[in-house]
Amino acid sequence: MAEFELYAYQEEVVERPLQRENTIIWLPTGGGKTRAAVYVAKRHLETTPKAKVMVLVNKVHLVDQHYTKEFKPHLGHNYSLVPVSGESGQKDFFGKVVQDSDVVICTAQILYNALTNTEETKHVELSDITLLIIDECHHTNKEGVYNKVMGCYVEKKLRGERPLPQILGLTASPGTGGAKILEKAVEHVLQICANLDSVIVSTKHYAPELKEKVPRPVKTFDIVDRRPEDPFGDHLKWMMQLIHEYMNLPSDFRLRECGTQEYEADVVTLDQRGVSEGNRLLAQCALHLRQYNDALLINDTLRMMDAYGSLEDFYTPKVSTAFDGTDFFLVGLFQENKLELKKLAEDSHYENPKMFKLESTLLKQFGPGVQSRGILFSKTRKSIRCLHDWAVTNKALQEAGIKAAILTGAGNGISYMTQREQSDTIRKFRNGDLNLLISTSVAEEGLDIPECNLVVRYGLLTNEIAQQQASGRARARDSQYSVVAQKGGREVRRELTNEYLEELTAKAIAKVQEMRPQEFHDKITELQTQAVISRKVEESRKTEKRGRNTAASIQLLCRNCFRPVASGSDIKLVENAHYVNINPEFKTHYKVGGQVRMDRTFEDWEPGCKISCNNGNCNKEWGFEIKYKKIALLPNIAIKNFALETPGGRITVKKWKDVTFTVEDFSFEEYCQDHFPNIFD
């Protein structure tokens, strides 16, 4: 086993965990929280009979990272360690894996599934675990899966059930939970402590050493004046006004300013209203207005051609799929103005001044022969793709030696990265083959990214936790943390607010740490009791909501053309994950498209082809077919692509958990009896 020593501040924060006290370790990004946790795990394994350590993470890529970089090097020689994620086969016999291993590193969802699964090879009890380490534990709140796991723990604790594992939480910041005053921030920190049944510790005696080890970057606000003229944006607003007039906006509805998040919220409400009233004109106009609003937001942050490109991508497939007069008007409006928009977008006189400021900010740190390494954070996967295209085609940035790449979250779909792609990108960044990562928030939290001397936040509005984590990425000596923003814009106000909230978090934690042990214990027990009651009430409400209508009383309508295509009673739930339509008649309502490709394989099913509405020119995508147990070909549908006709009126929901009827589990045996009766004779 590789021997390792802790810094004095790390030794201070592990004192209470080593005494088997449930503890949250609060240290900044780069402060070595995981290393401290490995040390506690090592001592726990050495001193605890039948020790079983489980490490929970909240993102798939962190499973392998913690296993490879931290736990295996220090524990792998003397103990059996297993990394398990949704992408690994061991999850299918997780109970056996836990039984046969000393240390298991997994996503929280896998443990929660195991706690609630009654199948012997998959089931795990909390009493099987002696030490439970929870990474990024500030996520242990509300409906998060960490809180579901800890909810099981707290209920057992309050019922007096033992044994229970020791808890060790790790966080760079618990945040204030949206609180702006000290009293409410203290309540939030106490709630996190209650959810984790833990005290919270930080270094008191060795703060200077911590500051030396984790230097704070120099923060700059790179401010740019507002565009003096914006003919491209003005033309988009004029087109939006034409749509407003065409849609005959309801007299009781007022849209707020175009190009804002508030306007987006308004058109989402309008779309829902159009669906509920069966008013396709209103619903479609609202959907198209949202695209124009997105283009205005992109125009405010990125290049004009990026904004134009987003509209062109949206409208190109619409040309051949216009369904009625509303579609012909909306598509025609774009087609008629397409050349003018493109001409305006290509006029460099009116280009976004923020892009020039971003260029100058990067050029201050990068240059020929200069060994710089930076991360550029932006809000969406779309914006980082546009920024990457800009970086690799910008002559000045290329001459300065910038070698940029995208880093996004893992997932399925064209705009996500696979776990392998993530790892390869970070490896190249570490080796120096790349020196600028253009990233969404995935790089803010947890990922093992080497020291940077520049972090830039561009067009971002986030909370104080994300800000601290992003800032913590600039760990090199004399590093810079830059906020590129418009003069008087919301980004600067949010950044300053977050600085205040960061200080407020520290004060709130200090207040909690000053509480007398009995006072703290009583408060935690009170909060835990309230949380258990609240969960039961909420579960009762959900059950009541799901039972509000019978499945047979619900009709599913295509979200685009409003044609009725299915009954709620046709829908069944496969393996608590896939909502499928088992009615053979449903196939007459859809057409089959291209094969769905996924980066991973699954135990009992494989993806088939995309499916979409076949009503005339509708072509609304509904989901994709899955082949279950190599026999059943089932249409797996996303409820966001449908409207629900209920006894109380027409509604839309984003997720299946929000439907107002109970979906029964899929029976493979019944399906086979119905479809292959001969084999049962």
From TrEMBL:
| PANTHER family per record | ATP-DEPENDENT RNA HELICASE DHX58 (PTHR14074:SF7), HELICASE WITH DEATH DOMAIN-RELATED (PTHR14074)
Any one GO molecular function term: double-stranded RNA binding
User: So which domain of life are we looking at?
Assistant: Eukaryota
Please give the family membership noted in the entry: Belongs to the helicase family. RLR subfamily.
The protein's annotated catalytic reaction(s) are: ATP + H2O = ADP + phosphate + H(+)
| Limits of the RLR CTR domain | 544-673
Q: Which is a Gene Ontology cellular component entry for this protein?
A: cytoplasm
Location of this chain's protein in the cell: Cytoplasm
Enzyme Commission code: 3.6.4.13
Predominant location = cytoplasm
Which biological processes are named by the entry's GO terms?
Answer: antiviral innate immune response; cytoplasmic pattern recognition receptor signaling pathway; negative regulation of RIG-I signaling pathway
Q: What SMART domains would the database entry show?
A: DEXDc, HELICc
The Helicase C-terminal domain extends over 362-528
Keywords tagged on the record: Antiviral defense, ATP-binding, Cytoplasm, Helicase, Hydrolase, Immunity, Innate immunity, Metal-binding, Nucleotide-binding, RNA-binding, Zinc
What lineage is on file? Eukaryota, Metazoa, Chordata, Craniata, Vertebrata
Family matches, as InterPro entries: Helicase/UvrB_N, Helicase_ATP-bd, Helicase_C-like, P-loop_NTPase, RIG-I-like_C, RLR_C_sf, RLR_CTR, RLR_Helicase
The UniProt record lists the Helicase ATP-binding domain at: 14-192
Q: Mind telling me what this protein is named?
A: RNA helicase
